[in-house]
Write a structure and sequence with these properties.
Blueprint lengths: L1 E14 L2 E6 L2 E7 L6 H13 L3 E2 L5 E3 L1 H4 L2 E6 L21 H17 L4 E3 L6 E15 L1
Parallel strand pairs: 3-6, 6-7
Antiparallel strand pairs: 1-2, 1-3, 1-8, 4-5
Helix pairs in contact: 1-3
Length: 144
């Protein structure tokens, strides 16, 4: 599993010109599933993300978590995180999970975040999505 997490002041995702997910302060998560990933991996990463202390406290120190600031999550499926560009000029996606398994784990991850009390919006698996965000910082973290 590969995740690109961006701290945002706002983010939204649209399909066919219609917004399907929108948040204010929180995390935009680009979510990629690899071969062999499991629900346990989803839970471990979701717990890490919810408790990750990358928001500023009243003294300007990076010391608060998503739940501390009442932030939201927008999770967007993105198999291209598994692009292997080491050979040639065309990316290879052989390490990406199958579409059925990736969709299952994408939905599981988003549902697990909701179960943990996080307001969670999501993109649409397999759709041509347009993602807009206002990166805060910028502060971007890569998790595997």
């Amino acid at each position: 599993m590969k995740i690109v997490l961006q701290r945002v002041t706002s983010a939204e995702v649209a399909v066919d010109g219609k917004i399907c997910g929108k948040i204010g302060k929180g995390f935009l998560i680009l979510f990629g599933v690899g071969k062999g990933d499991t629900e346990k991996d989803c839970e471990r990463l979701a717990d890490k993300i919810i408790n990750l202390r990358i928001f500023s406290d009243e003294n300007g120190r990076i010391n608060l978590s998503l739940k501390d600031v009442g932030g939201s999550i927008l999770v967007v499926p993105q198999f291209t995180l598994y692009a292997d560009c080491r050979k040639g000029n065309r990316p290879n996606f052989m390490q990406a999970g199958s579409p059925d398994e990736a969709n299952k784990l994408f939905e599981y991850f988003a549902g697990y975040c909701e179960k943990k009390g996080q307001h969670t919006e999501r993109g649409i698996f397999g759709a041509d999505m347009k993602v807009s965000l206002l990166n805060d910082g910028p502060f971007t973290v890569i998790l595997e």
